[in-house]
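Sharing a chain and its predicted structure for anyone who wants a worked example. Both blocks are below, sequence first, tokens second.
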Amino acid sequence: CLTEPQAGSSLSDVQTGAWPDPGGYYRIKGQKIFISGGDQNLSQGILHLVLARSGPADAGVKGLSLFLCLSDNDGVRNNITITRIEEKLGLHASPTCQMEFDGARAELIGTEGRGLASMFTMMNHARLDVALQGVAHASRAQAIASDYATERQQGRQPDGSPAVLADHPDVQRMLNEQRDLTRTARAMCHLTLGELERHDRPALIEFLTPLCKIYATEAGIRSADLGIQILGGYGYLEEYGVAQVWRDARITAIYEGANGIHALTLATRGLHVNQGAAITQFVQLVTELAANDAEIAARAQGWEARARELAAQSDVRTQAHAFAQESLQLLSQAIRQKLP
């Protein structure tokens, strides 16, 4: 539970407060919004991880701590109220709740004042989970569109014989783009998860995670949009399924960190972690993936020079998006060299 009405990506604006309870616990008071699965009747209790301010208001993120707050304890309801269920564009199977904590009992996770660090341990895994959602959306949209395009008769071949949609070059172009997006996004996720498992290049993991989240989620949205276009008018109807894929995919570029925030993270913290080790390790990775490809090697050298220029600047906000896109183009091109 992170987001509040006045605090989205800017967590220094969190107002939900926490204070020690004489019984050895903490009490939490405040409002949280956009909480996925904030309440449900599938299990007896829900464990809420809540970011709350245990320090002074002017301490910014350094005054935040992470707490574990149970929805109920042995059948006794905690002081948590669901004040609203959000009506969303998609993800209709997931109850997204607005929640009120009114002196709710909670336990401190980690060290007081270190809530942001504790939270990011979880959030970095969550961002890869969202990237995998993007892969799933891209794959599902591709499957729907491919099945439809290979069965739907429309128009004729140059020789006058009947044609299906997939026979038309423009439709084939869109199907190919869907396939490429899905394969590349899936490979990028596997690559990042492999680095996470080995954990011998931690700076590279920090750099790849936001890249993976950006690419895979935007691939899911783009593939779903292409699916609607391939199906034409039927794609715009709910009964064919691809419209739901688009509605469900659209949020992935927003939650667990908006993609623009991740681009800024790449151009700032991503270039400075471990004295800039991610720059060298990213170039090594690209070179490993595209061995003996002179074009990619040259692009990697150019990318490294620009990355080091950015790392030396104090304000890179206007360049963050372009840098993220350049990084993704280089990585995806290298990944495609390994795909059959």
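Comments welcome. The longest strand covers residues 96-109.
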